[in-house]
Amino acid sequence: MIETITSFFLQLADDYPRWNFIFFYDSFQWWRLVGGLKMTILLSIACVLLSVVIGIVGAWLQGSPRRWVRLLVQGYIQFFRNTPPFVQLLFFYFALGQITPTITGPDGWTEVPLISNVGWAIISLSFFAGSFNVEIFRAGIEAVPESTREAADSLGFSRFQSYVELVMPLAFRVSLPALNNNLVNLIKTTTQAIGIAVPELLYECVGIWNDYPSALYPTMTVLFFVFIILVGILVAGMHKWEKSMQIPGYGAS
Amino acid sequence: MNWTETEPIISIKDLHKSFGSLEVLKGISMDVMKGEVVCVIGPSGSGKSTLIRCINALNDINSGSIKVEGQEVHDPKLNKLELRKKVGMVFQQYNLFPHRTALQNIMMAPVKVLKQNPEDVRERAINLMTRVNLTGKEDSYPGELSGGQQQRVAIARSLAMNPRVMLFDEVTAALDPETVKDVLITIKDLAEDGMTCILVTHEMGFAREVADCIYFTDRGIIVEYGPPSTFFSDAKDPRTKEFLSQIL
C-alpha cells in the first residue's frame, strides 16, 4: 500500500516537476510535516481553551462593582483588540521574553527561558483572541434580561452564583455563533507563530519548500487542505454543541 | 432583634424613593401583621410596584425605614441573604430560568444558595408542584408551559425557600384571562394557609375576596386604606372613588 503511494508520487514528481510531493515519499520530510501538524493542533487547542477562559473571566470582571477593575478590563480589550496580533506576538517573545527568568535546561548546564517560544505563542494568541471573547460574552450577558437576574437576586443568589448558574449559561448560548467566528480566526492565526520560530505547520512547510523549491505547490496545497479540515472539525463540533444546548421552547428551536 | 409576633412582621415608616428627579414614593407608612393579606391597588405609576420592590431590597430607598421581623432592610450591614430567605417575590413576567426544567427551577435556590441536601429539596419541590397543581410538568421547560403554569412554577420556586412573607407584583397582569384563575386559586390557598402576603393587583374581585386590608395608592402616597368590606362600599377620598368608579 505505502509502496504504491510512494511510487505514484515519485512518478508524479518525475512527470510534473512543479508537483513534487516530496513528503509523500521521503520519510524525513513526512515527519517534518507531521511534527508541524501536531504543533498546529496543540496551539489551536491550547489557544481556544485559554481564550475562552479569558473571555469568561473577563466578562465577569467587566461587571465588577469596582471601577478600577472595569477600567483594567477595558484597557486590556482596547490594547489587544486594537493592535496587530503579529506585533503582539513579537512583543511578548522579544520584549517580555527578555525580562522573564531563565531556568537550567534538561542538560544541566544551558540556561533556557522559563517560557519557551511555544509558551509565548500560546499566551499571546490567547490574550489576543480572549479580548474579542470578552466582548462576545458581554454581548451575550447583555441579552440576559435584567428581570431574570432580579429573580435570582430575590432568591438570595450572590452575584457570583447568579453568574455561574444563570447569566453565563444563558449568555453562552447567545454568544456561540459569534464565538465560533472568533475561534475560527484564532486557529488560522496560529500560523503567525512562525514569526517566533514555533515549529508549527507553516514553519515546517516553508522549511520544506526552501529545501525543495519543487515542493512549493504541494506544500501550499497541504496547508490549505489541513486548515479546511481543522476549521471544519471546530465548526462541526461547535454546531453540535449549540444544538445540544438548545432549550425547548426558548429562542430558535 | 427581638421581634415577636405581636408586632408587625413588616413595618414601613415614612418611605421616600426617587428615581433621579422623579419622586415615586412620597412618605409611605404601612404595617402588616403576620398572616395578614394586604392588597395594594392604584393607578399605573402610583408607585405600587416600587413599594414592594423596596421591601426585599430590589430597589434601594432614599429615606424612611422598612423593617421585616424587626430587621431594618436598608441597613448597609444587612445580610441580604437573610432578608431574601424571609421574603419571597413573584414577578409579573414570571422570570423563570429558561434553561432549567420546572422542577430544577424550584430546586435551584435551596440547593445552590441554602446548600440543602438535593434529595430532600427534590422531595419538597415535587410536593410544591402538587400544591400549585402542576403534577406531571416537572420535566417541562418554562418555554413549554403556558403563562399561568409558569407563574405557578414561579410561586412554587419562591415557596421552596420557606419565606415568611410573599410579595406578588401584578402576577396576573401578563396572563391570558383563562389562566388567571388558576394562579389566583394558588395564591388564595396560600393566604388561607396563613402566609403573610402583599399583593399589587388589578384584580378587584380577588382583592375583595382574599384581602384583610386594601391600600389605595396614588402619586406616591397612600390615599386611603381599610378592610374590603368598607373600602369598596364607602371610600372617603374622592380620588379613591374616582379610581373605583373607573374599574368596578
Which SSEs are present, and which pair or pack?
The complex is a heterodimer of chains A (253) and B (248).
Chain A: H1 2-15, H2 27-62, H3 67-82, H4 85-99, E1 102-104, E2 111-113, H5 117-142, H6 146-154, H7 159-189, H8 201-211, H9 216-244
Chain B: E1 10-19, E2 22-32, E3 37-41, H1 48-55, E4 63-68, E5 71-72, H2 80-86, E6 87-90, H3 102-113, H4 118-131, H5 147-159, E7 165-169, H6 177-192, E8 196-200, H7 204-210, E9 213-218, E10 221-226, H8 228-231, H9 238-247
Parallel strand pairs in B: 3-8, 3-9, 6-7, 7-8
Antiparallel strand pairs in B: 1-2, 1-4, 4-5, 9-10
Helix pairs in contact in B: 3-4, 3-5, 4-5, 5-6
- Name the CATH homologous superfamily of chain A: MetI-like
Indicate the structural class of chain B.
Answer: alpha/beta
H/I helix tally of chain A: 9
Distance N terminus to C terminus of chain B? 43 Å
**How many domains in all of chain A?**
1
Largest sheet of chain B: 6 strands, mixed
What is the CATH C-level name of chain A? Mainly Alpha
Backbone CA Rg of chain A: 23 Å
Going by CATH, the architecture of chain A would be Orthogonal Bundle
Number of helices of chain B: 9
Oligomeric form of this entry?
Answer: heterodimer
Helix-strand pattern of chain B: EEEHEEHEHHHEHEHEEHH
Assess the beta-strand content of chain A as a share of residues: under 5%
Helix content of chain A: over 70%
Question: Spatial order of the strands in the main sheet of chain B?
Answer: 6-7-8-3-9-10
The rounded Rg of chain B comes to 18 Å
Task: Name the beta content range of chain B.
Answer: 15-25%
Q: For the largest interface in this structure, which chains are involved and how many residues does each contribute?
A: A-B, 22 and 31 residues
Detailed description of the structure:
The complex is a heterodimer of chains A (253) and B (248). With 253 residues, chain A is mostly helical. Chain A has a single domain, classed as MetI-like fold (Orthogonal Bundle), CATH 1.10.3720.10. Chain A contains nine helices and two strands; from the N terminus they run ααααββααααα. In chain A, strands 1-2 form a two-stranded antiparallel ribbon. In chain A, α2 runs antiparallel to α7 and α2 runs antiparallel to α8. The longest helix of chain A is centred in the first third of the chain and has 36 residues. Chain A is globular and about 75 Å long. The model of chain A has no long low-confidence stretch (mean pLDDT 93). Chain B has 248 residues and is an alpha/beta fold. In chain B, the strands form two sheets. Chain B has a six-stranded mixed β-sheet with strand order 6-7-8-3-9-10, with helices on both faces. A four-stranded antiparallel β-sheet of chain B has the order 2-1-4-5, with helices on one face. In chain B, β7, α6 and β8 form a beta-alpha-beta unit. In chain B, α3 packs parallel to α5 and α5 runs parallel beside α6. Chain B starts with 9 loop residues before the first strand and ends with a helix. The chains are: A mainly alpha (253), B alpha/beta (248).
